[in-house]
Each structure stands twice: as structure tokens, then as C-alpha cells.
Design goal:
CATH class of the largest domain: Mainly Beta
Oligomer: single chain
CATH architecture of the largest domain: Beta Barrel
Strand content: 25-35%
CATH superfamily of the largest domain: Acyl-CoA thioesterase, double hotdog domain
Shape: globular
Order of helices and strands: HEEEEHEEEEHHEEHEEEEE
Number of strands: 15
């Protein structure tokens, strides 16, 4: 199966409702449980295990269906690596709410829980007040940034194989790629454009993937380049993205005690901040 013939992102995160168990106070109340059948598809991986943002999106798709509204804030704790294969997502309503609803989700594969998620779902409100102390990253035009083909050495030596990058049309700022040639900038930051390879629109669930789709910012710090396993990932959805590629910036300020944080900003084509993220990850070994 070629990358072009594989299912797109929405299909690769689809969730089929299996059954619903009503809560103690009736349908849709606190304690209501929705069970979904889903699948972790091949080709969304790094080194054979599914990307953490993609796995969060699989759970997030089921949670969105159960709550009947898009994600506003989700936090996932990663419990085990996620290989391809069928999985089940159990969504439990915590608070049905009016404008906002809260639930938990557990994604299980062959009896093993892979991630546990807590999320609040609803549409951001327009209350007429805006304060912005930041702006989209300054990037060269999309066509002038660096593709994956130009990003890695010819033999990809030192870098884990990544099916994920074949599914995305990520283009990095040239200044973010010093680590590839052994000349990192010394500043733990990466910036670039995000789009799907099949030019699929990016919805709110897609933003959960975007938050974990770029090369880790720590690669440009001068520390060893290697696997950076995510321990916890939180994504705040600020708005539905306008059509077109997204501009992203990720930074790390502190690496200590075997862990690091990475903060992300995601901006759409209309210069709207559509998502922010923070993850805790293990320091790469090398």
C-alpha cells in the first residue's frame, strides 16, 4: 500500500460506537460510558511505535463523538508504546455540562492500556476581549522551507525510521535544522509549517497530532539526538483552524532530572493562535 492509498487522518482516527451504558441518573449523565472500536493504523509511527499526538487524536476522536463537541483542553498520560493494531476506547462522562463537558478516556490494545486521557470539550466563546503578547513565528514561505527529503542524510543514519513524515507535509525553517548536520543552533527551538500530505483539512482533533509532529526542540540544544518519549501531553485548542498550512513553534527551556518540557504554539493562515501545547518528555540518551 502506497502512502497515497492509505487512509487519511480522519479515517485513520475513526471511532465506531460499540455500546453505551447509562450513568446512574440516566442517559448522558455523569458516569455514562461510551465504548468505541478503533485502530492504530500503520504509517503514523516513529521507529515502529505510533506517534504520541496521533494516539491522542485516536482517543480524542472517540471523546469528541461521545461529548458531541470538539476538544477544548485534553491531557494524556502515556503508559505504554503503541504499535499498530485494533484498539478500544472507553469514554466516561465526568460532567455533561452545558457549554462545556468533561470526560475521561482509556485506550486499550489487547488488554493493555496505552494512554489515559482527561479532557474538556466545547467551542471557544467569543467574549469580545482579546489580549495577545505574541505573534506567529516568522517563517520563509511554505515552498522555501525544508522538506523531509532534504532534512535527513541520504541513509537517515542516526535517525529512527519515521512513517509519520510520509503522511505529513511538514516543512521546517532552515535555521531549525542545524542538528541534522551536527551544528545545532544552541537554542532549543524548532519552527516550521504543518500540513497533511494528502492536503486534508485540519480539524480540532487534528491539532492534537500537530502538537507532537515536529522534530523535538531539544535537538537544537546541543544535547544528544535520540528518542524523546512523551510522558504527558496537554493541548489547549483555542480556535478551529482556517484552511491552509499551520505555522508552528516549539521551545524547551529546562532539561533536568532526566526530563524536559516542550511548549508549542500553533497558528493558522489567518494569524489566529489555534492551539497551545506543553509536554513532559524523557531526555534523549546518546
Amino acid at each position: 500500500m502506497t502512502p497515497q492509498s492509505r487512509p487519511g487522518f480522519v479515517a485513520a482516527t475513526a471511532a465506531e460506537l460499540v455500546d453505551v451504558v447509562d450513568g446512574p441518573a440516566g442517559p448522558g449523565t455523569a458516569g455514562t460510558v461510551h465504548r468505541y472500536r478503533s485502530e492504530i493504523h500503520p504509517g503514523w509511527d516513529i521507529g515502529g511505535n505510533a506517534n504520541g499526538g496521533y494516539v491522542l487524536a485516536v482517543a480524542g476522536r472517540a471523546m469528541t463523538a461521545a461529548m458531541g463537541r470538539p476538544p477544548l483542553s485534553v491531557t494524556a498520560h502515556y503508559l505504554a508504546p503503541s504499535p499498530p493494531g485494533p484498539c478500544e476506547v472507553t469514554v466516561t462522562t465526568v460532567r455533561p455540562g452545558g457549554r462545556l463537558a468533561t470526560c475521561t478516556a482509556s485506550l486499550v490494545q489487547e488488554g493493555r492500556e496505552l494512554i489515559r486521557v482527561l479532557g474538556t470539550f466545547g467551542t471557544p466563546a467569543d467574549r469580545g476581549h482579546t489580549y495577545l503578547d505574541g505573534a506567529p513565528p516568522e517563517l520563509p514561505p511554505y515552498g522555501e522551507c525544508v522538506t523531509r527529503a532534504a532534512m535527513l542524510p541520504a541513509d537517515d543514519s542516526g535517525f529512527p525510521a519515521s512513517g509519520l513524515m510520509d503522511r505529513l507535509a511538514v516543512r521546517m525553517h532552515p535555521d531549525s535544522l542545524g542538528f541534522v548536520t551536527g551544528a545545532p543552533s544552541g537554542r532549543a527551538e524548532t519552527a516550521g509549517w504543518f500540513a497533511f500530505a494528502q492536503e486534508e483539512p485540519i480539524d480540532e482533533v487534528g491539532l492534537l497530532l500537530v502538537a507532537d509532529a515536529m522534530a523535538p526542540a531539544v535537538f537544537n540544544s546541543g544535547l544528544p539526538v535520540g528518542w524523546v518519549p512523551t510522558v504527558e501531553l496537554t493541548v489547549h485548542v483555542r480556535a478551529a483552524p482556517a484552511p491552509g498550512p499551520l505555522r508552528c513553534r516549539f521551545t524547551t527551556r529546562f532539561v533536568a532530572g532526566g526530563t524536559l518540557e516542550e511548549d508549542g504554539e500553533i497558528w493558522d493562515s489567518a494569524d489566529v493562535l489555534v492551539a497551545q501545547s506543553r509536554q513532559l518528555a524523557l531526555t534523549p540518551r546518546g
